[in-house]
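Weekly sync, protein design subgroup
Attendees: M.S., D.O., the rotation student, P.L. (late)

Item 1: inverse folding check
M.S. brought a backbone from last month's batch and wanted to see whether the design step gives back something sensible before we order anything. D.O. pointed out we never logged the input encoding, so this time it goes straight into the notes. Structure tokens as presented (387 positions):
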């Protein structure tokens, strides 16, 4: 498909991956790019590009169809939360089918196999399980919708990257801050499978998925094709801030069993929330605030009750999405940092995903190895004053 002269529609365009997709589309010679923009203040990165910024929402079919216009290629990087992931994807697929779109590239994730994929999940032939994690399971449900539309004739392709890093990635910006705050650790020596995907390798795969007829109706793992561990990833960032590895490890090591034992010993969510709320309510400062601003106090109390009712994974994900520093929720025991349960699950997997299918059917070959990718990240972090 000669897609450079067709209208290309990108969702999630103001995000990390979508923003790089827009940049690379222009570099590749695309002449008509439409970017779905939910919040205009987040569009500074792509606002400098010769593309159309189209207001709309994946959850609003009318605005979505207007934003899509006469696009023939759709690159779906939009995310959303909870069931919005499924509904937004469904709305997009319906709009694409109605508009006669010639190719949809759906950005899924290797996390459809869980935060800690089970051994045996190395290839795409492994059935997608129910994991119990809301994000993972909703992304899995979204994939089912894509395959259903593909079976009805919509030419759609699913890509499953894993730990996507590069300039602007929160994987790096957050990790640098955690290292500076001594709130990072190697779990089980950092031997867990990291499955890095440099963002430009992923964009290469997107372009191949647009062009390949063999790709239609299929899902592909996309990684750098290297066996990079979490220890490799964390230590590479530690070196950026001068934590050199000279004989003795400078990053604390903690066993997965120790982390599990810590959380098993903690009070349940209800008991813990009541206890924490009681401590706040007993504070003098809080009582003074209640007396001074009754309306605000009522609103804050409602927000407190709602957030306290969530499970720990949901609260952690909410804090990350609204921009609250993860450090605020970190646990310690006897002065020792304890990673949260999501970090534990993410960094203790043993599965390295195979990219053989993408290599054979898409012709995908990762151009940027980890050593080069992490060097490019460091250059950007210095430019952006994170280092």
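Designed sequence read out in the meeting:
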């Amino acid at each position: 498909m000669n897609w450079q002269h067709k209208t290309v529609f990108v969702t999630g365009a103001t995000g990390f991956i979508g923003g790089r997709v827009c940049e690379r589309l222009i570099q590749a010679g695309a002449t008509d790019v439409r970017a779905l923009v939910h919040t205009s203040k987040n569009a500074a990165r792509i606002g400098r590009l010769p593309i159309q910024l189209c207001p709309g929402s994946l959850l609003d079919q009318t605005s979505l169809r207007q934003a899509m216009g006469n696009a023939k290629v759709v690159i779906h990087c939009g995310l959303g939360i909870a069931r919005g992931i499924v509904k937004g994807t469904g709305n997009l697929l319906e709009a694409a089918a109605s508009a006669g779109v010639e190719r949809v590239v759906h950005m899924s994730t290797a996390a459809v196999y869980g935060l800690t994929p089970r051994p045996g999940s190395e290839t795409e032939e492994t059935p997608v399980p129910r994991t119990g994690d809301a994000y993972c399971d909703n992304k899995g449900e979204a994939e089912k919708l894509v395959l259903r539309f593909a079976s009805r004739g919509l030419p759609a392709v699913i890509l499953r990257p894993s730990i996507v890093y590069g300039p602007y990635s929160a994987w790096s910006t957050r990790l640098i801050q955690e290292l500076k705050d001594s709130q990072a650790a190697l779990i089980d020596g950092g031997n867990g499978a990291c499955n890095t995907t440099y963002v430009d390798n992923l964009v290469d795969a997107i372009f191949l998925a647009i062009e390949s007829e063999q790709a239609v109706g299929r899902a592909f793992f996309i990684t750098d094709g290297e066996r990079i561990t979490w220890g490799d990833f964390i230590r590479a960032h530690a070196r950026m801030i001068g934590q050199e590895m000279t004989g003795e490890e400078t990053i604390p090591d903690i066993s997965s069993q120790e982390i599990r034992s810590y959380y098993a010993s903690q009070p349940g969510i209800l008991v813990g929330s009541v206890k924490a709320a009681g401590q706040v309510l007993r504070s003098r400062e809080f009582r003074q605030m209640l007396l001074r601003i009754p309306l605000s106090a009522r609103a804050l109390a409602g927000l407190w009750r709602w957030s306290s009712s969530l499970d720990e994974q949901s609260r952690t994900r909410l804090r990350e999405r609204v921009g609250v520093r993860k450090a605020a929720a970190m646990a310690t025991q006897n002065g020792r940092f304890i990673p949260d349960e999501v970090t534990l699950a993410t960094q203790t997997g043993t599965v390295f995903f195979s990219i053989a299918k993408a290599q054979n059917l898409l012709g995908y070959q990762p151009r940027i190895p980890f050593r080069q990718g992490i060097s490019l990240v460091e250059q950007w972090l210095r430019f952006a004053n994170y280092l």
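Discussion: Residues 289 and 357 are 59 Å apart (CA to CA). The first helix runs from residue 16 to 27.
Action: P.L. to compare against the previous round before Friday.
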